[in-house]
Write a structure and sequence with these properties.
single chain; alpha/beta; N-(1-d-carboxylethyl)-l-norvaline Dehydrogenase, domain 2; 2 domains; five-stranded parallel β-sheet
Length: about 270
């Protein structure tokens, strides 16, 4: 489906750049912005967030965490015109999404639409998009969201952000638990291949597939950030502590929590 409205995309990180490229292939007009210059990769880039959103009907943000979204929002919210739709796709949780929604200028609407998936699905349009908002706003966001992946409408404002916390919390915690289970297997003298095979043959097959993925790019520091959005769930917090135990792994994919997958700097 063609995206007929002028669109702005803010945040060209690991996920943002391939997502922006997807939209560039469908949008009538796309302007991008990134905090660090030089990442536009041939896309039309603006010098500031306010310049990027000027005249845009739809604004998409894909940033690292609640603090980054809040900081960038301060720079573009005053420039939004009545009738603009802001699609917030970062993983920031429902509390931060509600705080941002409370700051919207008159006549500006917002959809929270965080995604599940890594860099590969972002490039091919195979993400899962958890979308929350008013029905009319979700309808309007649909052409943008379906260009990026399979859209799951979760309900009213904040529900997309909330479901993302639930799902990613479960995934990250389960992968962390598998990493610990394989470490225990090593300590007990269970052959690695035998332990992996037994785990992959049971109900943890999907978790094992993620724990041994070779093409995903979801840094452990961001996985820990997502667990923090759950606001104190004890099991999630225990997994977060385990993820943060070795700072050398912070920029490696979540699969590095599995002992044999770790690639420490030389």
């Amino acid at each position: 489906m063609e995206i007929t409205e002028r669109t702005a995309f803010l945040g060209l990180g690991r996920m943002g750049l391939p997502m922006a490229r997807r939209l560039a292939g469908a949008a009538a007009e796309l302007t991008v912005w990134n905090r660090t210059p030089g990442r536009a990769d041939g896309l039309t880039a603006a010098a500031t967030p306010a310049e990027a959103v000027h005249g845009a009907g739809v604004v998409v943000t894909m940033l690292a965490d609640p603090a980054a979204v809040a900081e960038v929002a301060k720079r573009f919210l005053p420039a939004l015109e009545p009738g603009t739709l802001w699609i917030e796709m970062s993983s920031i949780g429902p509390r931060a999404a509600a705080e941002l929604r409370a700051q919207l200028p008159y006549g500006v609407a917002m959809v929270d639409a965080p995604v599940l998936g890594s860099v590969g699905p972002a490039a091919t349009g195979d993400l899962v998009v958890y979308a929350g908002g008013e029905d009319a706003d979700l309808d309007r966001a649909q052409p943008v969201l379906e260009r990026l992946g399979r859209v799951v409408r979760c309900g009213g404002p904040g529900t997309g952000a909330a479901l993302k916390v639930v799902v990613i919390g479960a995934v990250v915690t389960a992968v962390t638990a598998v990493g610990e289970a394989l470490a225990v297997a090593e300590q007990l003298g269970v052959p690695d291949e035998l332990a992996r095979g037994a785990l992959a043959a049971g109900p943890l097959a999907g978790v094992m597939a993620r724990a041994t993925a070779t093409e995903a790019d979801f840094p452990i520091r961001l996985a820990a950030k997502d667990l923090a959005l759950a606001s104190g769930g004890p099991v999630f917090e225990a997994a977060r502590t385990a993820l943060l135990a070795d700072p050398a792994l912070a920029e490696q994919d979540l699969s590095a929590i599995v002992p044999s997958r770790r690639h420490r700097p030389a």
